[in-house]
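Course exercise 7: structure representation. Students receive a sequence record and must write out the corresponding structure in token form. The form below is the worked example handed out in class, using Septum formation initiator family protein (135 residues). Read each field label carefully; the graders check that inputs and outputs are placed in the correct fields and that the protein name is recorded exactly as given.

STUDENT ID: A-19
EXERCISE PROTEIN: Septum formation initiator family protein
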Amino acid sequence: MVIMLGLVVLAALVLAPTVGTYLDQRQQIAALQEAVALSEQEVADLEAQRERWTDPAYITTQARERLYYVRPGEVVYLVDNDLPAAQVPQEEDEVSDEVAVTRTDWMSQLVRSVATAGLARTAAPTIGVPAPPVP
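STUDENT ANSWER:
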């Protein structure tokens, strides 16, 4: 009885890695089959799209929708703000009074900054490049 029990334990120890490898391989096969099925579906979708693009009516429809092409004599109306009231973004409240108020005139500050930069005598020398002589 002890010998039989020993043989069963030995068989279990010998077969355990093989069964684990078998189960891993079956899982990989299932994953690869699923990937192949997804790829086949993508190929079918792309072929259907290619077939649609061979139809001149489809091409005309796409040009009219995407590029707003019209035939001579047609009048096109583009509707602005055609979103339903629930989708229209609401105006947000101001964060603070300080952020909304401009303290200085930005144009005069820009001109002053450019003039100051243009009238500067020398710039800081860069590493490895000698500074030009000052007249």
